[in-house]
UniProtKB/TrEMBL annotation:
GO MF entries: sucrose-phosphate synthase activity
EC numbers: 2.4.1.14
Coiled coil: none
Keyword Transferase part of the UniProt annotation: yes
Domain Glycosyl transferase family: 579-760
UniProt xrefs under Pfam families: Glycos_transf_1 (PF00534), GT-B_Sucrose_synth (PF00862)
Catalytic activities: beta-D-fructose 6-phosphate + UDP-alpha-D-glucose = sucrose 6(F)-phosphate + UDP + H(+)
PANTHER family xrefs: SUCROSE-PHOSPHATE SYNTHASE 3-RELATED
Protein name from the UniProt record: sucrose-phosphate synthase
Lineage of the organism: Eukaryota, Viridiplantae, Chlorophyta, core chlorophytes, Chlorophyceae
Source organism (scientific name): Raphidocelis subcapitata
Length: 1229
């Protein structure tokens, strides 16, 4: 036999010496354990002794003989006195017992062996080799007596039959002992028994159904067109912004951002591209040209699979955002999300055009964001493209915050500084706003994690599924476990029924590249290689070196039956990573307790080390192997990772675990499978006891390699073990429970075998074909449902009951502190058409009755009884734009008005220009300053552009309506004819300017407004998930809650009361809420202005209530120079930033050709700039140029100066890395 095959025997012989089976080690252990209770020490010694005896007994005779000869040879050397002389006696006694036991004829017995009985190998009696083993000794050894032959008569048999029966009984005996043998063909024979014997010997477990719910035919014939004949094919966009992402040799664990998510998204992209309905998959991630990382991360594109056609297949596409020469951790990426989305939007538009030009027409099927940052980027892209957006959270901020606060290891301030958790949670809420589907791994994730968010209310979501309401939306939570790429693991898996489903869905042929699907699915590798390809022989373990077996279920079962799960695979030499691990271990062939994760505090690695160190039986029986990412030096690691590793090293020293714990410095992607095979070959256990595990891909990988698991009760492992039936769940902070679970698996071979087999047999529940098919089916079904809802959504018959239900389900008040009284809710909701009740801070007459309205249909542009803006000195309320037509923007193109005055018909396309100067209009003061800038600089800019062969257009993005916007510009001396387009009402409308006849100097604002055409496609675009009736009624309900205006008093003891007016007639996609302090009594001090921070708190309260009720909207606050404040409520797809991006995308204008010009209210060196509108940061972020004008010199009394300088703070520093933001000096302005 080879030295490697017997290597573990030598290791066990040495282990016997160190576990109390020799007089020398017993004496040393007694000295070390002085003061410990005798019964505890005895129990620990018995556990280890029983384990090693059973392992030796499971050896085949040849292996024991070889070990014995080696021991005798060692005893003859000069140093024999240093070794325990009883070792030879122990080996000889075990060998003799083994031979006698194998020759005994035992009938099948239903009783289980007594685990408490351990052969006393330390006794000096009966040490000879030739004597027969008596019945009492067999009873001790096997836990039962042999049944006498007289108990049941035997039929006569020939010598051959008798020999065969003896061998069969021998196999059954060892099987009943639940001891799978080690070593060669003899060991393999002992596992080969009839199905009846297997059923009697191994407990059965409930397996996951081999076929999808309803059967293959049911799903294939469900009407979902996801087969080869799908026209057009699908173009899928995946986004994973952070970490180091590449297709091969992933540096998993290199830093906290490069973990399991990176591997998941790369494998998902590959698997989706192999689906017959999918033509192209782009995985978008951040481009990194930092010299400290590999140059691969600076490549613009990387193919993940063999291309299909000219442009098909899977690719990694790296998008620039933030400083490209600097690697940025995910917590610092938030200011660059908008830039990423802008550049990604340009890439997707370019790709769609290229596919069409190449004759490979595709539809953009969905944009799939992974994690909070990518989820927000995907939402921004979907707002512009109008495409479906789906989300996978991976790990969630609210859940992380909750665990960190409960752990008391960090203060809230420290958590915020380290993880930017508040911004992360808001990013997740924004992603929920836009998502049509959220993919989760487990039901626990839906209930205990997403249930913490305002944007998801499980009870209300179920109601809306049954009774859809226009303007109310919650994403569908689809529980679909992630997939595993078995082609990268050295395992054989059963045939995948989901691969059969994909084949059933393909009704017309198969593309040439589809042959590679089977390699990823766990089958068909040999067929994909061709008839002439060399076929890889199966390994003796049933786990191959690469790829999967092409056999059907019967062949797979036969291969498993003929294979020993413990024989070494592949060549004689141990895998390199094993050799690296063995450097740390005194007895490297003992069972391995494996944990593999990055060194993160939430992975709870230190608790595992404590559980191991505190348990003497665990230390005696097994080694602990910790794969904690890759590192060069500890000091070069991230601070959190370094702290975890230092804690592990201190625990190793404290428990004196040297020679028992391995923690190699580095491993490659090719080593992953070999790492899992180590606990498989040594009959060890894989452990993941994270404080919170969103899913746990490592648990799936361990199961695929036939390794039982011990996993945390917090998160995805609950569902994994429920599906695979392959392990034990433990509380992650209970070290005693952890050690007990490990001992149970290590010392009960039958249970170990049961869990190892169950994990392998059920593994296709987590295959990539299964995952991709279920994901695409879920998206397709939701698309069909959404189309049906758009046709049948109830608008005019909407009733107030849903608001009441939302209150009862959410228990959310304006301050989020207490639930509303249901009786009060019913009283307020008794009449759909009654006036809104008074607020705590505003008198009853302050809230306009028009909020609820009397018409089931909103008049979009009818004259309003409330002025669009507060009347500034010398400025009358303007007429409503296009008032003479009496038509809404959805009623069709405008007609000529006023009879005798001809009005030029507006155009529907934006005039092409080289550059566009976009004026951001936030108030009367900003209009004057912007107009003055254009008047002074405009001629020189136009002249310079003309000299360079370029043209410059002018646009306006205003917080006011069209009439007010044009009036403000005209009052400041800027002709309306100079404007090419206008975004008005805070992004709820886009207007294109009319022909030249309407641009004559001195033309009235009304005439200019009549010549502008609303962008009809934009109106339809932003109508998605919007219903103004729902919004205004929910707003009325919210304004009636006590404390809704808390904090707006500005700290005054008796502040003047607020006057609240609501204008619901500013357009079909816009509501305006105006807050103003009442005038102070004569001779009193001027009322303080409304604080921007208090307004933001009010916006947050309204958003929370909107989200918890299923209403999705944008809310922007605006400060007026006279101290008033305005809140603009618009559809989710409508804001000034989004409207400008929609306009640029629809008319083919690169965003980089736009220059936004904004006026700051306050700007000081080293301090954030302040702006009049809360959407200023959205307008600053991105790829467009930005010119910021400084505030004018202060003038007037203190109150006026305070009102004029108050604003919403924006830190411009993170957006200035590429020089696109310019601050104009005060002298130049």
């Amino acid at each position: 036999m080879s030295s490697r095959a017997n290597g573990w025997v030598d290791s066990y012989i040495d282990a016997l010496l160190s576990t109390g089976l020799s007089t020398e080690s017993a004496r040393i252990a007694a000295e070390q354990a002085k003061g410990a209770p005798d019964d505890v020490e005895q129990e620990a010694a018995n556990i280890a002794a029983k384990y090693y005896v059973h392992q030796i007994l499971a050896m085949d005779e040849e292996s024991i003989q070889q070990a014995y000869l080696k021991v005798r040879a060692r005893s003859n050397v000069k140093t024999a006195g240093e070794r325990d002389a009883r070792l030879e006696h122990i080996t000889w006694r075990v060998w003799t017992m083994r031979r006698r036991a194998a020759a005994a004829r035992l009938r099948p017995i239903d009783e289980s062996p007594d685990p408490s009985v351990v052969p006393d190998l330390r006794s000096d009696e009966g040490g000879g080799g030739g004597g027969a083993v008596d019945e009492e000794e067999l009873t001790k050894l096997y836990g039962r007596r042999p049944r006498p032959a007289s108990d049941a008569p035997r039929a006569p048999a020939s010598d051959a039959a008798s020999s065969e029966a003896a061998e069969r009984e021998q196999r059954l005996l060892l099987r009943r002992l639940s001891i799978p043998p080690r070593g060669g063909a003899a060991g393999a024979e002992l596992l080969s028994e009839s199905s009846e014997e297997a059923a009697a010997a191994t407990p059965t477990t409930e397996a996951v159904p081999a076929t999808p719910p309803g059967g293959l035919a049911a799903l294939a014939g469900s009407g979902l067109n996801l087969g080869e004949d799908r026209v057009p094919k699908l173009y899928v966009v995946l986004i994973s912004m952070h970490g180091l992402v590449r297709g091969d040799q992933m540096e998993l664990g290199k830093d906290p951002d490069t973990g399991g998510q990176v591997k998941y998204v790369v494998e998902l992209a590959r698997a989706l591209a192999r689906h017959p309905a999918v033509h192209r998959v782009d995985l978008l991630t951040r481009l990194i040209a930092d010299p400290s990382v590999h140059k691969d991360y600076s490549a613009r594109e990387e193919a993940l699979d063999e291309p299909v056609g000219a442009l098909g297949g899977a690719r990694i596409v790296r998008i620039q955002c933030g400083p490209p020469d600097k690697y940025i951790r995910k917590e610092m990426l938030w200011p660059h999300v908008r830039e990423f989305a802008d550049n990604a939007l340009a890439h997707v538009a370019k790709t769609l055009a290229a596919l069409a030009a190449a004759g490979e027409v595709c539809e953009l099927y969905d944009i799939h964001g992974h994690y909070a940052d990518a989820g927000e980027a995907a939402a921004l892209m979907s707002f512009t493209l109008g495409s479906d957006m789906v989300l996978t959270g991976h790990s969630l901020g609210r859940n992380k915050l909750d665990h960190l606060l409960k752990s008391r290891t960090m203060s809230r301030r420290e958590i915020e500084a380290a993880y930017a958790v508040t911004r992360r949670i808001e990013g997740e809420e924004r992603a929920l706003d836009a998502a049509s589907l959220v993919f989760t791994s487990t039901q626990q994730e839906v209930k205990d994690q997403w249930g913490l968010y305002d944007g998801y209310n499980a009870a209300l979501a179920r109601i809306l599924q049954d009774r859809p309401r226009a303007g109310r939306h919650f994403p569908v939570m689809a529980v679909i476990p992630p997939g595993l790429d078995f082609s990268n693991l050295k395992v054989d898996c059963p045939p995948d029924p989901w691969q059969q489903l994909a084949a059933a869905a393909a009704v017309s042929g198969t593309r040439s590249r589809r042959a590679s699907v089977s390699a990823a699915a766990g089958g068909g590798a040999e067929e994909a290689a061709g008839d002439g390809a060399a076929k890889q022989p199966p390994s003796a373990t049933g786990l191959s070196r690469r790829g999967s077996s092409p056999s059907a279920a019967a062949a797979h079962s036969a291969a498993a039956a003929d294979a020993s799960p413990l024989a070494p695979a592949g060549p004689e030499e141990d895998p390199p990573i094993w050799q690296e691990i063995f450097r740390f271990l005194r007895n490297p062939r003992k069972p391995v307790i494996l944990a593999m994760s990055r060194p993160d505090a939430k992975k709870n690695i230190t608790a595992l080390v404590r559980a191991y160190g505190e348990s003497r039986p665990l230390r005696d029986i097994a080694n602990l192997v910790l794969i904690m990412g890759n590192r060069e030096v500890i000091d070069g690691m991230a601070p959190g990772s370094a702290r975890v590793l230092e804690s592990v090293l201190k625990l190793v020293d404290a428990y004196d675990l040297y020679g028992c714990v391995a923690y190699p410095k580095r491993h490659s992607q090719d080593d992953i499978s070999d790492i899992y095979l180590l606990p498989h070959h040594t009959r060890g256990v894989f452990v993941n006891i994270a404080l919170q595990e969103p899913f746990g891909l490592t648990l799936i990988e361990a199961a695929a390699h036939g390794v039982p698991i011990v996993a945390t009760t917090h998160g995805g492992p609950v569902d994994i073990i429920h599906t695979l039936h392959n392990g034990i769940l433990v509380a992650p902070t209970d070290t005693r429970a952890v050690s007990d679970a490990l001992l149970k698996l290590l010392t009960d071979p039958g249970l170990w075998e049961q869990y190892a087999t169950s994990g392998r047999d059920n593994i296709n529940a987590y295959s990539w074909p299964s995952h991709c098919m279920r994901c695409l089916c879920a998206i397709e079904k939701e698309k069909l449902k959404a189309a049906a809802r758009r046709k049948t959504a109830m608008r005019a018959t909407y009733s107030y009951d849903l608001d009441e239900i939302a209150d009862q389900l959410t228990g959310l008040t304006a301050t989020g502190s207490a639930a509303l009284d249901p009786g009060a809710i019913a009283a307020r909701a008794s009449s759909d058409l009654g006036p809104a009740p008074p607020t705590l801070d505003a008198p009853p007459a302050a809230v306009d009755d028009s909020l609820l309205g009397t018409s089931p249909r909103v008049r979009s542009l009818a004259a309003s009884s409330v002025p669009l803006i507060a009347a500034a000195p010398g400025m009358a309320p303007p007429p409503s734009p296009r008032q003479p037509t009496g038509r809404s923007s959805l009623d069709g193109p405008p007609t000529a008005a006023n009879g005798d005055r001809a009005v030029a018909q507006p155009r529907s396309q934006l005039a092409p220009k080289s550059k566009y100067l976009v004026l951001l209009l936030d108030g009367a003061d900003s209009a004057a300053r912007l107009a003055a800038l254009v008047a002074r600089k405009g001629k020189s800019m136009l002249a310079a552009a003309a000299g360079a062969g370029q043209t410059v257009g002018v646009g306006v993005a205003s917080a006011y309506g069209l009439g007010d916007t044009l009036r403000l510009l005209a009052g400041a001396g800027l002709s309306a004819g100079d404007v090419d387009f206008a975004v008005t009402d805070c992004g709820s409308q886009i207007w294109l300017a009319g022909a030249a006849s309407a641009r004559a100097p001195g033309a009235a604002a009304g005439a200019a407004a009549e010549a502008c055409a609303a962008d009809e496609s934009y109106d339809a675009h932003i109508d998605h998930n919007w219903d103004k009736i729902s919004v205004r009624r929910l707003l009325a309900h919210l304004l009636a809650q006590p404390g809704i205006f808390a904090g707006l008093a500005g700290g005054a003891a008796a502040p003047p009361p607020l006057r609240v007016s609501v204008d619901t007639e500013t357009g079909s996609h816009h509501l305006l809420l105006t807050l103003r302090r009442r005038n102070a009594p004569a001779g009193g001090a001027a009322a303080p202005p409304l604080a921007p921070e208090a307004l933001l708190a009010l916006v947050s309260r309204i958003k929370r209530r909107f989200r918890s009720s299923g209403v999705r909207a944008q809310i922007a606050a605006q400060l007026e120079a006279d101290g008033a404040a305005r809140l603009h409520i618009t559809p989710l797809r409508a804001s000034r930033a989004l409207a400008l991006r929609y306009l640029a995308h629809r008319h083919g204008v690169p965003l980089a050709d736009l220059v936004f010009v904004s006026c700051a209210r306050e700007m000081a060196p080293g301090a954030p700039a302040r702006f009049a509108a809360s959407d200023a940061e959205d307008l600053v972020a991105g790829v467009q140029g930005v010119l910021v004008l400084p505030p004018p010199p202060a003038a007037g009394d203190g109150a006026a100066v305070a009102a004029a300088s108050a604003g919403f703070a924006v830190d411009l520093e993170p957006y200035s890395h590429d020089g696109r933001i310019q601050l104009m000096p005060a002298a130049a302005s």
